[in-house]
Specification:
Elements (H helix, E strand, L loop, with lengths): L9 H6 L2 H7 L2 H18 L1 H4 L40 H37 L1 H15 L3 H16 L1 H6 L1 H28 L3 H8 L4 H9 L4 H24 L11 H9 L8 H28 L7
């Protein structure tokens, strides 16, 4: 009597995969992932964890401004990490600010990914004049720094729609600005992968079967380009968070009533010489740690997906 053997589930295949094996044997990767996951969970639970809501202007008391951390002289037990110039609890503001920074980072990378996949796939698959035009356009954009593109685009938005409109839709604007500024990184990498993949037999077989170009591009070629996309996405999230922080520091980011990590650092920088170092120091440490663990995860992913680099 024949017994049919069921195929292993996705979870069973994942438990036996080399990816999980390498992860569980790499202490740096495990630590980085644990710290990053902590950041994400804490940020999502900010309304529950935070002692106060820094976005609720009615709850603020200007008399509580620039109070040092609770363990210092003149500190207040209500404010563990002190307060900023508007009397907002630094700890609460960092929780809400981290959520905003992560949200902008992930959404900006999603936009970069969308643009980069479409442009990179089209450029690599069709080649010829389409490839030349799209890649020259990407080269022109890459000749400018990300911050220069972001500053120009944000300045145009402010001049065209006014400061009030920009402040109201600041998160959307930052996502669009950072997404537009960074898509060439994806497009060039995906194009290189497509040029290698489209010469393989499975692509020729799909053409012989009469499949149309969009189906071949998205159903057959794209899944085989996911490894470099995953590595770039990890690094680009860190870059997007840093770009948002830099724009907020320059006054082109989020408004004062919606502080992110970058705007907190900017606010505190004006008071750091007066002795209120905690307004900048604590958000700065959180920003550096967040970007560091994301970059460490990106480096680990790059090594794992490239066996020639991975040393175990």
């Amino acid at each position: 009597m024949n017994q049919t053997v069921s195929a292993p589930s996705i979870w069973e295949r994942f438990k036996k995969s080399d990816f999980l094996y390498y992860f569980l044997n790499d202490k740096v990767a495990m630590f980085s992932f644990a710290v990053f996951l902590t950041f994400v969970v804490v940020s999502l639970l900010a309304p529950v964890i935070a002692p106060t809501n820094p976005y609720d202007l009615t709850s603020l008391d200007i008399m509580d401004s620039e109070i040092p951390p609770s363990w210092m002289p003149d500190g207040d037990s209500r404010f563990w990490l002190g307060t900023d110039d508007q009397g907002r609890d630094i700890f609460s503001t960092m929780l809400y600010g981290s959520r905003l920074s992560l949200t902008i980072g992930f959404l900006a990378v999603a936009l970069q990914l969308f643009l980069g996949i479409i442009i990179g796939l089209s450029s690599g698959y069709f080649g010829g004049r389409i490839d030349s035009f799209l890649m020259r356009f990407a080269d022109v954009q890459l000749s400018f720094s990300t911050m220069m593109v972001a500053i120009i685009v944000s300045a145009i938005f402010k001049a065209s729609f006014g400061s009030e409109f920009y402040s109201e839709y600041a998160v959307v604007m930052l996502v669009v600005i950072i997404g537009i500024a960074e898509w060439p990184q994806y497009a060039r990498t995906i194009r290189a992968s497509v040029l290698a993949e489209k010469k393989k037999e499975y692509v020729e077989a799909a053409r012989v079967m009469g499949f149309k170009s969009p189906r071949i591009m998205f159903r057959h070629i794209l899944p085989n380009c996911l490894s470099p996309i995953l590595v770039i996405s990890t690094v680009q999230v860190a870059n997007a968070i840093m770009s948002e922080a830099a724009l907020s520091f320059l006054g082109l980011g989020l408004p004062v009533d919606q502080p992110s990590l970058g705007s907190l650092i900017s606010i505190g920088f004006n008071y750091i010489f007066s002795g209120s170092w905690w307004i900048t120091a604590f958000p700065g440490v959180v920003l550096v740690l967040l970007v560091l663990v994301i970059n460490l995860l990106g480096d680990w992913l790059r090594d794992v997906f490239n066996p020639k680099l991975y040393k175990g």
